[in-house]
Amino acid sequence: MPDPAPLDAAKALAPARTRDVAWRENAAYRYGWALFDAGLHWEAHEVWEAVWMRAEPNSRERSLLAGLIQVANARLKARMGSARAHERLMAIAGRHGSEVWPEGEPSAPCMGVSDAAYRALLITNNAK
């Protein structure tokens, strides 16, 4: 069994409150991106979940993180060969993105992620 200590340490870096304006100082959030970019989707999901839990209910941050968690899960399912689960999770991620960037409203970035960058994650069929 893998040592859970590194992930536990990364999750412990999540600040008491997840805020859009402080994303650069949110070491857990940024570490989640490093894991995601390295193709460690399950691990990214685990770290981002700790950050998500500290976001205000119904906030853009919470919706963004929920979407990122689903994208990470979808990529893991794609790598495992579960196309149906991948498609279902990507659809859920798309709905979360629509909560962050409602159609017809200005599309300000959230936690350093633009609407266009998020949408690119949804169409990228990369299970890396």
Any descriptors?
mainly alpha; about 0% strand; Hyaluronidase domain-like; about 130 residues; globular; single chain; about 60% helix
Tell me what you see in this structure.
The chain is mostly helical and 128 residues long. It has one domain (5-123): TTHA0068-like (Hyaluronidase domain-like), CATH 1.10.3450. 61% of the residues lie in helices and 0% in strands. It has six helices and no strands. It has helices at residues 5-12, 27-37, 41-52, 60-79, 83-100, 115-123. Helix 1 (5-12) packs parallel to helix 3, helix 3 packs antiparallel against helix 4 (60-79) and helix 4 (60-79) packs antiparallel against helix 5. The protein starts with a helix and ends in a 5-residue tail after the last helix.
Please provide a brief summary of the model:
It contains six helices and no strands. The protein is an all-alpha fold. The chain is globular, with a radius of gyration of 14 Å.
Q: Domain count, please report it.
A: 1
The percent of residues in helical segments reads: 55-70%
Q: What multimeric state do the chains show?
A: single chain
Average pLDDT, rounded to a whole number, is 94
Structural class: mainly alpha
What is the CATH class designation?
Mainly Alpha
CATH architectural category: Orthogonal Bundle
| Overall strand count | 0
Using the alpha-carbon principal axes, give the shape: globular
Distance from N terminus to C terminus (CA atoms, Å) equals 23 Å
Tell me what portion of residues adopts beta-strand conformation: under 5%
Low-confidence region ranges = none
So how many helices? 6
Order of helices and strands: HHHHHH
CATH topology, what is it called? Hyaluronidase domain-like
CATH superfamily: TTHA0068-like
Round the Cα radius of gyration to an integer and report it: 14 Å
The biggest beta sheet, please?
Answer: none
